[in-house]
Amino acid sequence: MKKALIIGGGFAGVQAAIELQKSKILDVTLVSERDYLYLYPISIWIPTREKSLDDVKVPLTKISEAFGFHPIIDNVVEIRSKESKVV
Fold first, then answer.
1. Which of 1, 48, 57, 61 could be cross-linked to 36 through a Cys-Cys bond (beta carbons 3.0 to 4.6 Å apart)?
2. Is 43:10 a contact under the CB 8 Å cutoff?
3. CA 31/CA 72 separation, integer angstroms
4. What pLDDT shows up at residue 53?
């Protein structure tokens, strides 16, 4: 099976991981510096105390377990395209 690596655990990265994994033709790994997806649209309610920081975060492990991709929580410091490596 071919592999896909997605760098970034924001909305676009998580959605890409979900959709690619659903295709069942790729084994998908997502690299994110955070262990959660931050829900920006509802974060506007944090200053008014209608929501807390925990209310606007969804753990990546919970999402990955539901959709089958592999999360790696770490920083990407270098991309070596000639070697097909991410450090």
1. 57
2. no
3. 5
4. 87
Does the pLDDT of residue 1 top 90, yes or no? no
Residue 18, H or E segment:
helix 11-22
Would the pLDDT of 81 be above 90?
no
Residue 8 has pLDDT above 90, yes or no: yes
Identify the three-state secondary structure at position 73: strand
Residue 37 is encoded by which pair of tokens? 């997806």
Instruction: Label residue 30 exposed, middle or buried (CB < 10 Å: 0-12, 13-18, 19+).
Output: buried
Nearest to 27 by CA among 17, 37, 12: 17
Q: Which residues contact 56 (CB under 8 A, 6 or more apart)?
A: 38, 39, 40, 42, 43, 46
Contact 1, 26 (CB under 8 A): yes
Name beta bridge partners: 67. none
